[in-house]
Design brief:
single chain, alpha/beta, Rossmann fold, five-stranded parallel sheet, two-stranded antiparallel ribbon, globular, hydrolase activity
Length: about 280
């Protein structure tokens, strides 16, 4: 009996100290994902992206970054075979905000079910998920919803200006509708979901602390949401409206700051540590 107890205790100790098996993570997304490996494109504002922050907590995770600035679900679906994605244990899809702005039709659940192709959000996600399952039928697939956003002004091109998600896109569709479609797909396919839109705490109100705009008398004033909505900004003459002091969850109204990337990482770690 004593010998059996010793053997069991030895097995427990060996298991406790056994090296954690490496987890391969394929991160697919847009510029938010891209920035993790291209911090220079944020002019030094971002010091570490969400993927590196996940690895800080889960060092046995090894990731590959497949973030493409400006890309939509349709773009990923149509180019999937040319992206040279390696087989992984976990795939995350972090898309939606560009789909909203360019007005990619959302489609319906029928487009997903009937595999109608990548001309809609539902159809594009079907293509992507099918492609992933062809690579690894046992892989965990995690869908991330887009973040709420306020007025975006690109720090690298101040003429690139997009209004926040407090307004619908040019087709009259709210960003929340794209979020709901992604949630529906996750539910229908029994996929994991990281709901950044509704559950991260990042909102259009706190994306930035304020927007600094020039008044008629040429002086500047800090306006908090929603007081800055529709106030003019002249990219050729005015100072960039989001100085360092205005940074909150995002640094430019759209792209997460260090604080924002940490929130994304925390939500992913909570999920991925189960794997």
């Amino acid at each position: 009996m004593k010998k059996l107890i010793v053997l069991l205790l030895t097995a427990v100790v060996l298991f406790a100290f056994a090296p954690q098996k490496q987890l391969k993570w394929m991160a697919i997304g847009d510029s938010i994902t891209y920035h993790n490996n291209h911090l220079e494109s944020t002019k030094g504002i971002l010091t570490k992206g969400y993927m590196d922050r996940v690895v800080d907590k889960l060092p046995y995770v090894k990731f590959a970054n497949h973030g493409y600035p400006g890309w939509t679900a349709q773009g990923i679906a149509e180019n999937f075979d040319n992206l040279h994605l390696e087989k992984a244990d976990v795939y995350t899809l972090f898309l939606g905000t560009n789909d909203w702005w360019v007005g990619l039709p959302i489609g319906t659940g029928d487009d997903y079910r009937d595999n109608t192709g990548p001309k809609s959000v539902y159809g594009a996600y079907r293509v992507i998920i099918d492609k992933i399952r062809q690579q690894n039928s046992e892989a965990k697939i995690v869908l991330l919803t887009p973040l709420q956003r306020t007025d975006f002004i690109d720090i690298n091109n101040v003429r690139s200006i997009i209004h926040g998600s407090y307004k619908p896109n040019r087709q009259g569709v709210a960003l929340s509708a794209y979020t709901d479609a992604i949630k529906n797909i996750a539910q229908a396919e029994k996929l994991e979901l990281v709901d950044l839109y509704y559950k991260s705490g990042i909102t259009v109100k706190n994306a930035v602390k304020y927007k600094r705009l020039r008044k008629v008398d040429s002086s500047y004033q800090n306006y908090v949401y929603p007081k800055y909505i529709d106030l003019p900004f002249n990219p050729d003459e005015d100072e960039y409206p989001y100085p360092t002091e205005a940074i909150d969850w995002t640094y430019d109204g759209l792209h997460p700051s260090d604080k924002g990337h940490q929130k994304i990482a925390d939500m992913l770690v909570k999920l991925m540590k189960k794997y």
